[in-house]
Amino acid sequence: MPPEFRLYNTMTRSVEPFAPADGETVRIYSCGPTVYNPAHLGNFRTFLFVDLLRRAIALRGWNVRQVMNLTDVDDKIIKRAHEQRKTIRQVTEPVTEVFHRDREYLRIQRAEAYPKATDYIPQMIALVQTLMDRGVAYLADDKSVYFAIDRFPKYGKLSRLDTREIKTGARVAQDDYSKENAQDFALWKAATPNDEVTGAAWDSPWGRGRPGWHLECSAMAIDLQGETLDIHCGGIDLIFPHHEDEIAQSEAATGQTFARFWCHGAFLLTEGAKMAKRLGNVTTVKGMREAKISAAAVRHFVFNTHYRKELNLSEEALEASMNAVRRVGDFAERLATAPGGTPELATAADAAMAEVEAALFDDLNAPNALGALFTFIHKANAELDRKGSDAAALERAREVLSRINGVLDIVPDRTVDDPELVEWVEDRLAARRAARERRDFAEADRIRQELVDRGVAIEDGPGGTKWKKVR
Ligand code: AMP
Ligand code: ZN
Question: Distance between CA 65 and CA 57 in Å, rounded?
């Protein structure tokens, strides 16, 4: 029996045992990016938390079906499109491409579906109609449709809004607003001239208009995952109003619990990091790539702090992560090429696997999982020094590293992470081979030194020359 899987549920403010409702497949809905600007590293901290969640669930042996929406119509996008004299589509399409490129760079697994809000307008209209029929929504004199929060007695249960703060009758039309303004919110907004020119207006029973941001997620989640999700997740800033409003719309329409678990990731604080000197602009994935910070290092940096704790972006921490993953990479290489192990190597591997599972299944405690991994690396390196010949033990160690890495994904990939270096090293190794062939050993030694100066160690063996980056 695997250890119990536990998750913090924002709804109850406590860590609870979790299992999928059907015992097999975990249905996740995670709020995705608003595609008007490339996502920053803060957004990606949240997406990495969801990646960790889905991989931990897979390690536990359940299937995952994750839906992540792409918000491609909202106030911010329309404003941007209007400023640039573009349609919302012209704004969102290139940004969506960048999102997927950045996501792949960070090794964030693909969700099973990435629905775009603009592809679900009929479902959204139907949801608004249901809410009208149930008497919890009304058409106001501004031709927009609002949700009447005082008709939904559970309003505020996720964000623990004090009912005295709820203003009945007052209305808010914008997508994002503060707790102090808990008011009737817009489900369907009457089209403005800007909406029309930017291609953000559709026909509806209430006239031309467009969906409110909160409505998008309710309609897509219900359409693609059914009335009750196993887990709904996003960044902590979405608890209010976004998730509170999603609950109101969904539950008032279906009468079912919208999500069994609500999981929220804490913020990445990037203050000061924009001016980072040594590592360049590290607040975007583009900046990270340019500064040659590998996905492995970013993942280590993010996972080294529990997802419910705030995390500060700093060069020191990033550099420490770059060093840490180098150690993991060296170890992976050593395991791959070692001739054999010792029985103690297998014992250490078993212990590491058990500790990593216990940590990850305990509300995704990735920092503890990393701790267990590094303890294993330390012990295993000592065992490999003893040059044993136990093939099964070696195999077990490889398998454990691969399973752990299947969740954390922090083994750096030399060829992907630094293609320039790889090209240069290969060119230098070819020149060295040529020098040795013509017996110019002085030149061959000079090239070896050139490699060493760039932190590359080489090892001549029967199968040719192997190299690795040592710093
Ligand atoms: P947005 O594109 O603004 O809709 O945000 C996409 C996701 O990123 C949401 O789940 C937000 O909660 C999350 N998010 C925004 N800023 C940060 C941050 N600084 N740290 C962590 N998550 C964030
Ligand atoms: Zn959402």
Answer: 11
